[in-house]
Amino acid sequence: YGYHIYAAAALAHFDADWGKANFERVLLLIRDIANPSRNDTYFPMFRHKDWYHGSSWASGISLPVSPTGMNQESSSEAIASYEAVALYGKTMAAIF
What we know:
The chain has helices at residues 2-14, 16-21, 23-34, 75-95; strands at 49-50, 55-56. Strands 1-2 form a two-stranded antiparallel sheet. The protein contains four helices and two strands; from the N terminus they run αααββα. The protein is mainly alpha-helical.
């Protein structure tokens, strides 16, 4: 979802009305990959982040796609997705 969140941040930066109109939709994408709330009943907390190994797993931490149940496809994509979340937050803070 990082690519989509980054694109939404760029769109919102140049079109604040679009950002306001689509805020909740983009927030759903963010909550799916980087939800920080234990109280969210719809999305798990930090679905992809493994705090013990210090990396993000492409398919989450429970899908059996490798012998350990985890796979890491691209660290750069993981970093870019979290950067996109931060950029979206900064952009939306300036709008609201």
